[in-house]
Amino acid sequence: MKGRRIIYSAAEMDWLEANRLMVISDYHRAFREKFCRPEISALNLHSLRKRKGWKTGREGDRYKGRHRRFNQEEMAWLAANHALPISEYHAAFTASFPREDVRPKNLHALRKRMGWKTGRTGCFVKGHAPLNKGKSCPPGKGGNHPNARATQFRTGHGRSGIAVDLYKPVGTERLSKDGYREVKIHDGMPLQSRWRGVHLVEWERLNGPVPKGCALKCLDGNRKNTDPSNWEAVPRGLLPRLNGKSRRDYDHAPAELRPTIMAIAKLEHRAARAGRRREAAE
Predict the structure, then answer these.
(1) Model-level pTM?
(2) Strands 214-218 and 195-197
(3) Domain 170-281 belongs to what topology?
């Protein structure tokens, strides 16, 4: 048929356009079987799709979109070796079976569909030693790259520029936005752990760590008064009953009413907890 114009019937053109997304080999085989056109080659159909501007969505990947099928022997091998890392899994499979159409992402998707677990979560477990532990970057790489070195602190040099003016030594006190006194306890990381409430430091020095699920409540309403006797460890669930949301504002109430407000809040909190436990038991 080389050099001759190929004529397609209306029915054939309709079929060709409707099935243009098929892989060319399947496209050609299905067309010949349906319309008994043995003189039509795959190249003819490929050229027709190009002339008509029919896009297949597989430009640059002749296997893209094709469903990969595996025989029983291949599936048995894949199931037996599914715990291998994906690169080794793919390399070993293609070495055992001549499947140039199978790529690592196909095997990864197959494992997900079949629910085959590898036992790897992608997270470092506690006590895991990094592969590069104790190793330094080679010259010109990573932290030793000239661009990285240009922004690093020089050996023997500390803070410079505005950091010198902003630095506060350990032991410095400040007032937080909420009115609590805070003291700097270290220069390490993370940054937010460098400052701690003075009332917490003083209370824990006398009573030990604050119980889990509790917070310290100022008894006289003056948050700057850090005397341990002025602070009480109360359940965090009690705090909303003291901050005005329950129509009682402990901090701004008269001094003679505060003990009563605290007692009522504790009673309501215990009653609510007892009710929840009773409902859970039922």
Answers:
(1) 0.49
(2) unpaired
(3) Homing Intron 3 (I-Ppo) Encoded Endonuclease; Chain A (3.90.75)
